[in-house]
Every structure is written in C-alpha cells, then in structure tokens.
Design brief:
heterotetramer; A mainly alpha (329); B mainly beta (365); C alpha+beta (743); D alpha+beta (106); C: 743 residues; alpha+beta; 17-stranded antiparallel sheet; 11 helices; D: 106 residues; 3 helices; 4 strands
Chain lengths: 329, 365, 743, 106
Amino acid sequence: CASNNEPGIGSLRDDPLTPGSLDEQRVARLNATQLYDSAREALDSSDYATAMQLYDRLDAQYPFSEFATQARLESIYAQYRSYQPELALSAADRFMRSNPRHPDLDYVLYLRGLINFDRGASDILDALDIDSSTRDPINARRAFEDFGRLVQRFPNSIYAPDARQRMVYLRERIARHEMAIARFYETRRAWVAVSRRTQDIIAKYQGSAVIPEALAMLERAYAELDLPDRAMQVMAVREASFPADMQLAEPPKPQAAVAESKPPKKDKRKESDAPAPTAAPAATPTQPAALETSPAPTLAPAATPAPARSEEPSFGEDGVLMPQLPEGF
Amino acid sequence: CSGKSTVAKPEPLRQIADPQVRGESRWATKTADSQGLSGLRPLLAAGRVFVGDSKGHIQALDAQGETLWSQKTDFRLSAGPALADGALIFGTLSGQAVAVEASDGSVRWSTELSSEVIAPPVGDRDLVVMRSGDGRIYGLNPADGERRWTLNRSVPALILRGAGNTLLDSNAAYVGMDNGRVIALDRTTGEPLWEEAVSLPTGRSEIERIVDVDADLLLVNDVLFAASYGGDLVALATTNGRTLWRRSLASYTGMDFDGRCLYVTDAEAVLWCLDPSNGAAIWEQNQLKHRGLSAPLAFKGNVLVSDFEGYMHAVSSADGAIIGRRKVVDDAVNRPMQAADGVVYVLGRGGRLRALDWVPVNSAG
Amino acid sequence: IAPFQIEDISTQGLQRLEPDTVLSYLPLSVGDQLNEASSQQALRALYNTGLFQNVVFLREGGTLIVRVEERPAIVSFEIDGNDKVGGDELDQALADAGLTPGELFRQSLLDQVKQEMQRQYYANGFYGVSVEATVTELDNNRVSIKIDVEEGKPAKIKSINIVGNQAFDDETLLDAFELSPTQAWRLFQSDDNYSKQKLLGDLEGLSSFYMDRGYLRFDVPSVQVSLSPDKRDIYITINVSEGEPYRVEGVKFSGELILSEDYLRQLVLVREDDTFSRRLATQSAEYMEGSLANVGYAFAKVNPMPELSEDGQDVTVNFNVVPGKRTYVRQITFSGNLKTNDETLRREMRQLEGAVFSRNHVERSRTRIARLAFIQEATVDTIPVPGSDDLVDVAFTVEERPPGSVQFGVGFSGSQGFLVNGSLTHTNFLGTGNRVSLELENNQIADTISVSWTDPYATPDGISRTVAAFYRKSEGVIRYSSGFDSNSIGSSLTYGIPISEYSSFRLGLGVEETSINTFATATADEVLRFVAENGSNFTTYEFRTGFGRDTRNRTIFATRGSLNRINLDLVLPGSDIEFYKASYQLQHYQPLFSGVFAEINANIGYIENYGDTTTVPPYEHFFAGGTGTVRGYRSGSLGPRDTPYNNAFGGKLRTTVQTNIVIPTPLESDNKTTRLSVFYDIGNVFAEPSDWEYDELRSSAGLAFEWFTPFLGLLELSYAFPIETDPSIDREDRFQINFGGGF
Amino acid sequence: CSPVFKLNTRQGNMIDDEKLQQVETGMTREQVHYLMGSPLVQDDFSPGRWDYVVYFRTGAGEEYRRTVSMYFDGDLLQRIDDSNPPKMVGDEEAAEPDDLTPDNLP
C-alpha cells in the first residue's frame, strides 16, 4: 500500500537549497521532517520500496541533518524486510563505522543478528519440522557472533534479552550439527574421529542437550579403541553430571519478533539528550521456560570430585558442567 | 602531464609565399624497404654512392646513378656503410659486423658482436668504431675485424629506437649514448677520456625518463654539439668535455652548421637556427610542426629538411622562410640527408634513393 | 597556547558530524592538562580519523575549543574516456581508496588514482595517454570530481628480434611467445600490444623452452625495449646465450625417501642418454610428491637438481626428497551445502577424520561429490591447522545445482508429440541425496502414473535400492505405430551393489501385467499375428542383473573417464511370454587437444524371445531416431515398417554410436551448466539380428547445445543434417528439442 | 566374505618404529611430539596421557589395533607402554597407495 502521495515533497523540488538566511534553514528543516515522517509512515505500513526511496532522498538532500543518520538507520531495516540481506548487512556495517557512538547502535547490532538468523533457517524445512541443523551452519554462526557482540557491548540494552535467548537456540542448533557428524562417524566405525568430535562438542557446547549423548558416544569410542580406563573415566563424568532420569528439553525456535525488530522512532532526542529512545518497542517475548532448564541443569552433587582441568571449559567445584555462554547472563 | 606525449596533429602544407628555388631531380633508384632502420645510410665517397639495404643487397652507383657493382648477401643489414681502409663496414640485426670490399663488394670479414647493430658505424684508415644495441662500443681493425677494445655502458629500461652517428677525430671517438650521456674514448685504447651528461632522466614513468642522445653529433673544429630527447642541447669542448653552453631543446634527428647558423630540428619538428657561440635562437620555422622532420642539411646557402610524407623543403638561411618544396620520396625520410659535389642524396623509409639539386626558380633548364 | 587545565571542551565548525563523534576520537577530556605533548597527540588522533581537513585548538578561559574543518563529502565521481583501463576492478579500487560518492574527499588520494591510471596505461603501451582530473566545489562543503582520459593509440610491437640463437631460429622461438609483432593479415590481433608482464612471461617461457631441450646453461644477458619517436611502434631485442645441450648421465635420489627407491624409480620419466628436459624432471618430481601425499606427507617437496659434470655435457638428475612430517586430518568441513545434509556429502568421503592424510583419497572424495547429480562444482583445499606442524583440515566447498526438474502443463518430447504431463524429479529429496520421481501423464496417446524412489545409501557401504511402480494405459498407438492399445501395470525392486571403487553389480526383480487389444481395421498384421500366436494378456516376472564400471569425473557434463554398463533383464520361464533383453552402453571421454575433447556414446540393445513364445512383444521393441539415438530423424521413426500401414515397427536389435566433439566456449558456465558440441550419429534398429548391414545404418551430423536449466533439468537442442538416408522412407526432423532428462 | 565392496577404515597415527625406539622416559612433551608427531587420541579428562592409537579395519572386517601410550608427569615423560608389536599390517603396506588411482599415476 504505497503511501497515498508524497505530502509536501512536491514543494521541495524547486526550493533552492542555499542555507543562506535563517528562514531558508528553517524551511529546509521543516521539509526534512516532513520527508522523514512520510518515509517512516511508508516503513510502518511495510511499503519498504517507497520508504527506501524517501530515505535515500533524505540522505542526499539533507546530508547534514540528524534525519540523514536516522534515515540510514531505518533504511537498513527496510532493506532487511525487502529480502536484501547482503545490502542490509553492508548498510549496517557502514552505519556502525560512521556513527560509532550512536545511541541506537545496540539496535543495529540486534538487526544484524536477526538478518543472519533468518538466513540460517529455511522456513519450508522448519514448517515440515525437518531438522535443518544438518545443513551448512555458517549463517547460524554469524548470527550468534552478532548477538554476542550486542550482549557484550550493551548488556542492558532492551534487545539483549531476546538476543540472549536466540543465542541459546543458535548454539543448540550448531551443537546438533556437530552431533550429527559424530553420529555419522559412529555408523562408519571411525572411532578416533568419533572421540575427537565428541570431545570438541563437550568442550564447546556445555549445557546443550546433546552433551549426554556425546559423553556416551565418547565412552563407546574408547571402548572400541580398546582403551578401557579412558572409557571408565568418561562414564564416571557422565553419570556424575547427568543421572539417567534427567530429561533435557531443547530450546524452542524463537519466533521472528516482527514488532520488536522495528527501528526506534526518530524523536526530538537532540533536545532532551536522554539516551533511551522514547518509543520503546513492544515488550520482549515472554521469558521462555526452556532457558531455566537447559543451560544450568539442577544437578545432584557429583559422587567423585571431577578432576580439575587445566584450561577452559572449567568444571565447577561441585562437578557441575559450568555453562560456557558469554558472561552477562 | 608531460607535453611531449600529447598526440599532436601535423601542420598542413601551406602555399609558399615567394618560391626562390626548385628541386631538380638527377636520378632515383629503389632499394628494399629499410623498415625504419635509420642507421642504414647511403655513403658518398670518391664520387660514388654506396648503399646497402635490409635484404642484404649492397650496390655502388656513380654520380649519374649508374650501377657500378651490386652484391647480394644474406646479411640482415641494419646499419652503415662506413668507409674504412677501402672496405664498406655494415652492422646487422643478427649482431654481426661485416666488411665488404668497396671495389667489388666481396666480403672481406664478418665478426660476432653481442647484440643487434642499429647505430651507424664510423671508420677510417686504421680503426672502425661500432656500437651494439646492448650499450657496448667496439674498436675493430678494419683489415681483419679483430677486436682492439670494448667499452660497456648500461642501457635504460625503455629507450628511443634508433641511434646517432659516432664521430672520429685524430685522437678520440665521440659517442652519444642511450643513457643521455656523451662519451669520448681514446681511439687506440678505448679508455674513456671524458663523459658528460646531456640530460638527466626526470619524471616517474619510464617514458618520461627517456633521455637518449639519438640525434647525430656535430663536430665543428674543437666544439662538439650534442642534443638529447630528454630536452637539452649542449656545446662541449672536445678537449675535456667541459660544457660551453647549454639550452633546452629536445631532438632525436641531427644538426648542421653553415658557418653562421647551427641548424637543428627539434622533437616537435620545429627547425631552429641557433647562434653556435651561445645557443641563442636566431630564428625558428614552425610551419612544419609535427611533420616528423629529418635532420637539417645546409646546402648552397639554404637549409633543407624532409618530412614524413616525403616532401623536401628548402628554407632560407637568412630568416627561415620556406622558399621551395618538392616531393622526393613516397614515404618518411627517417635518416639524415647527405650532399656531395652540389648534389643532395635522400633515402626514404620505403627504400627509394633520389639524387637532386636545388636551383634558383628563374634559372633555365 | 600556554598549557592549562581543561575545564570544558566544545567544538566549532561541525557541519555533518555529531559533536560526540568528535569527542569520542579526542584523547583529551575535562580535567586533563593541555600541554605541548597532549595537544600534539590529540591533533594527530583527530587527523588520523581522516574526517578532518584542518584542526585547530583554541582556548577561551578554561574551555578548550576544537575548531575543525570537515573534509568535503564527494557528491559525484565521474570518469570517462577510459575504456581500455577501467571496468569494475577500477571502481573497486576507487571504492577501497575512498573515492566514491558519500565518502570524504582527499586531494592526495585523487593524485594517487591519477598516477595509478597513468601507470596502468603506460604498462599496456598507451604511451600517448593524458589523464586530467577536475574537482568542482559545491555548496555545503561538497565536491564533485571528474577525470577525463584521452587514450590515444596504443603502441604496437613492430618487431621482436632474438640475437645469438643458433640452435633454434627466431620463428620457432617466437611461436611460444604470448607477445607477437603486428601481422597485417591478423585483423583483430591483440597480442601485439606491449605489456611488461607478458614480456617477462615470454622470457620465462623462452628459458624453459631451452631448459626443456637440455640447454642448462641458457641465459638472457640483456633485453632492450625501444619506442619509435612517434610513440607508435615498439621494438624488442632479446640477446641470448644458448650454451650446449646436456645429456642425462643418470638419476639418483637423496633426502628421506619414505617410499622405496625402486617404487620411486618407476615414477621417473627422465631416461638415461636422452637430452635433459626440465619439464620431464619437474613432472617426475610432481609424481613423487603425489605418491608421498598419498601416504600422508601432504607437504612433501621433491626438487629435481641437475648436477652438471665438469667436463663434457653430461648431467645427473638428483631428486632430493624433503617429505616434511606425516600429516593427519583433524577435521573435514563442508561449506555451501545450504540444501544438502552434511551426511549426504560426508558418506562419499574416502578420507576419514583422525586418520593419516591421503591425497588421492581426498581427490577421489572430491570427484565423488562432483559426480552427485545435485552438485555442480566441488572444490577442496588442505589447510594446515595453526599451531601444529602435522595436522590439516580438509575444507570442501560445494556449489549446489538445482536438484531436479519440475515439468508441468504442456511438455514436448520428440517421441510422443505434445504431452500434457506433470513430472517432478528431485535428486536430493530433503537434502538426503535420495532420488524421487513422480510422473503423471494424460494425453491422447497414453495415461501414465509412475513413481520411483532411489536411496543410494540403503546400507552404509553404499548399496543402492530403487523401488519403482507404474500404471500405463495407452490408446491408439505406441510411438504412433502398429495401431493397438495396451495397458500395463507393474513394479520393480532393484539393488546396486558396489564391488569395487568404480564398479557395481545390479540385481533386481520386477513383475508386470500387460494386456493388448487390437482392432482389425487399425492394427498392423504383425501385431495381429503376435496376438494370435501368443495371446493378449501377459503376466511377466522379470529377473534383472547387470554390471557397470564408471570412472567418469561427473555424471552430468563429464569431461574425463568412461562408463561401461552391461544389463540383462530376463523374463523368467513360466511367465505368460518369455523373452530376455540385453543391452550394452559405453560412454567414453577422450581428450583431444587444447581443451577440446570427444564424448562417445555407443549403445547395443538386443531382445530375443525363447521357449514357446514365437516373437518378441511389439511394445518391447527397440526404436531408433531422435535425441537419444540418431539425431536428425523423427523420434522412433527408423527401422522396419509394419504392413500395411507402413508405420515404424521397431525391432529386436538396435545399434547406435553418437560421437560428440565438445567445443570449449568462452561462457563462464562452460561445462558447468552449458555445453556446445559438434556431433556425428550413426545407427539403426533391425527386425532380426541377421538383418544387420552396415549400409543400412542411418547417420547424421550437426550441432548440439545442452543447457542444465534451473527447473526443467537437462535441455538438449540439436540441429542435424542427415547423411546416409533413404528419403523415401525416413522422416527427417532436423531441429529437435528434448528436456527433463539428464538424471 | 561377501563380494560387496566395503571401504577400509584407517584411524589414528602411523607409528614409525625407528622413531619409537628413540623415545625415552624423561623426555619433554615437545621432544616426544617431534619424534612421534601429534597424538590423535588425547582428551581433557586425562591431560597427562597421550595415546598413539593405530586402528586398521579391512572391508572384510579384519581388525588390527596397536596403542602406544605415553604417560607424563607434568612435562616429562614418565612411562611408555606398547599394546602389541606390529604383526598384521605393516606400516609400509598400509602406506601403499590404494587402487584408487586409475587416472593419475603414469
């Protein structure tokens, strides 16, 4: 639904933009606001093509106004929603490079994460609930890194909670990808490969639902390789960390937060200098139940003291596998 | 960027205001295409004209253009001939020096040099001086081609095609080199007497740094005039190479002197008459600009130049006005013209050799 | 300004940038002491941002005023006249340099770009070029930049003169040169454009030309490049000193050999008493490096070192082996497989993780992935693991091809005229590598529903299982001949059992029920006789077997290797009619010269009845003509005719040979999704094997273009001129189109 | 055994007996690594132990195993034990390139 007309835009065309006297500047400023408002209106009504056109014009004609920066911010979102992930990503990088201290920088990072997040999952497969985690996880990794940067630099940003939750899901997805590979080598009876893959998973993806299976597989690999003492050691750790009855739920796939991912409105912040954008997006999705259970499983105290380990991942004193998510949780 | 490189359009031929002389052809003959080898030049000696062409065909003609003898060889002649001890000395593209008897053209000797020879050799009764393209200068015995001395100088990465003549006097040989310097060598030992820079390479790209001294040198009693493509014309004292005067003028063709004017055609084909004592310009003729003018030749009180379309122009030595013109060959004249006994000999690029005279317009005949 | 305590900081002269952006880069803050050192440091910091043309510090009481002049923003950037040097690498270079609209303008940058363009023109012989840049100031501190280029004519190579060569004349030496003098007869000649890189390359080529012929002491003392005064002609003079050719006296090995000396000696191409050839020596070294890499020494180096004898012209070639450490594979990774499961690729691996590296296993794995119908391109590289000297990761990058073909609505197949049909073939169903095909067809000739499901890895070791079922009801004619209807319904189960890396065994069972009904007025006499003798309803139980050996490097658009496949389908005794069908297929790729290769498809099909069945059922006959057999003839129209309607009736024996000469095209998609070839087909079908006669074979020649379309699978267009033909009975079909096949 | 072609499975390190002879207790991890290469079986649960495992299983199912374990006290080698000396498949034969190379060797 293209916005009906371009309010006030027509009058701009023949207006000589020489900001000589004060009133021209005021006129220019006014028109910029109108231009911004109509662009934002197009954006809100999902008419991203028109929105992008208006943002480009705003940036070209008023390159010095705060509107230009805001226009560039919001055009990233428009490009994302009109299925041009590459353009949106490079626009986001350019924005971060030229506005290193912009108050909405956390939003740009969050948007970057969302773009990669969507490229990772393909909707058709998910619709058929087929495990797409066995495909190339490159975009999942990129999304994980983007959200990681957001959570690390802006721990208390309004986008952080959703980002954290998505990171949990992404990490699980990547862990399942690694596990599928380990399962293949198991059927292929390539036991050294199995031992190395499973160790990798245990070290990197603590708290994931695949850890128990990885430990069991590692144990079997050592047995097959005729290394009984190693197998015993692994069994001990497994039983200590995961008593047989414990069920590990996998974190659900967070729904695309359409409302929340909209760029914050351009307000008159310059005057009030309050960093938080006034029009806060709708409430973040309710805290998913799964987050409590999976990463820090409530564990029985370990029977035997887990051996101290030289470098990360560290075993807590009570033998619990310490979750290795980025700090700030 | 550097003016030299703009692709310029040659000046059209204009009607001559008051023609005073006209060219009268004596005779003409055809040799093989010289393929731009400006080192192949007819030799005027003892009333005869000796000429060799790029297909190896050497012939001797008398003053009337009749063939005295002609010799077919399979040398890829590329420079010469020079007369030394009764032999015609040629250089070849395969890097050989060749001597044939001036009497009948039979081969006296041939010897291997280190690279192709495109600079015209020079010689006299007991020495031949030749230059190979890789910067080496050889002193050879004209009798048997045996190598007396060799001098080696480096060659810049990009040079101008062609090379100037070498001059020989009683005690030294004077060579204009591709690195923009002139060197005087002791003719018996080959040791350098002095070495002077005509131009120093300037600019960033290889092409801006071309400073070849490809214009023919001119020796007038004990002053050596040398011009480089790098943009300088100098007068050096032959005794110690000291620079008498220097002026900015780039040339790759040559000079002549008629007692009053030092004539030179510059890189943009402007003909200059300079004062030999200080290089100041007496007059300049620029109506033939960018027409690829050959080296000037002082002849019967005027000065002659030929252009890239094969026209020979007669210019008044007094004020540089063009006083005569005649088409002499059918393509460019890319080597100096020569005169003997009142006759001018011009060899075109395509191999046509013509002898002609310049007579006053109103004279009969 | 005298040093003082900063109480406040403010900015002046900002137009585009935000104040706090400037403050974020300023290393000073309120409370710092501003002195010589700190102000210098602050100035340098601000300049390094590249955002400012000019920065000045002023003091007003306790406040430090940072007055800045922002660099102008580039509004427009234009270059014209540069068709020889330019294109997207130039735009990319400009973008990297920051000379694009939206970036900040710097004069030093523009000069650099101008200089760089000039240098590139000179490097390519455009000595007459002139490059002018003009910067026009606009309001609001913005600029627009224009670069005008006047190229002039490039200098052409007039002559290349090689001096000092006795053993080989200029002509043979110049033959291998990339550069060449202008030859009048070559109209669009471009190799007479001078370029320094190409000259260096040619000198390299010249020295290896001599080295390959034993001239070990060959050397180029000097090269002169000269330019004519009018800057149009370039003369190149190359002075060479050849030396004498050396003869091979013997071969020896040194260093740590790992493999036995006589194993290595087999790989040596250099023979004693031959003249030494560097090419053969290098090639032998490469073979040795290959064998060592096959047993774990991924970074082995073998240097062929010629040792010259003092006297005479003899050389001993010393192969020095430096094996490096035996390497192990840490991880095998796949990237680019957005639609294919990891396991579908990993199961093709002949190299395992946590095992010794083997080059041919990795290369064989790459070929096996490249052979998958849904993979268009597969590349692999071996990346050393940082921090270890004997661990490598093997990284495969795949480019997926559209996995199948979806046909819908109107289809056209040479054999059956216009079909209304829908068919879905997917060779990578849900990324599992299973091939699924579903075909629906209803048109005036036949109604068909056929389904097939192939799982290439029914067992981990690669035994494939194909389950297929079909129902076909065709009125009127099959292949428009012989006027009878037939309905058949059947299903089959076939296994492919690998018996070596390259060959596999076929085993399967099929059951089929067919019934024919004939019409006195329309059915050919032969069919009537068949029905009279054998009845019209048959239930057949078929035993299928066969053997195939396939060394091609790809299943679609292969360029190397060959496929031999023998199949035997025996209808078991006790079925209503008894016959067997045997077929032999050969597909062979023969490289010819410089990138051109030939693809030969030879097929022999023979069907024979046995027991009390009098002849072979007509619907099982072989037919010839059309895309798969002899192009240029109406599909299925060759061979015997039925009486009295004179329609093609097919026969028991079909022999066809298609020879395609594949021509490399400059297209980027050549041999990936497109292929152009000139072909010669010959073949025919015969009622009885005894009827086979050479001059009865039909042949044609023409041009074929194959294109792997995103949705329709392999599309083949061919235009053929029939050669051996009998116009009275053959029906030509010069232009033929066929799609949906290919897998 | 069935005619079906089954791939060999080769896992773990290749042990070079000459180099193994040169390994003595008291050597540092770096020295052991120089002689024997990187141990493919090691884990975080017992960092003081390196296992050089050789595991070779033919398509037909014959299995061949050998493990050389190195026990370290900190950085110094304390104990080596070798499960069993080579018998079935020698290092050299295992190293022979398989029949996978129809098209690249001369």
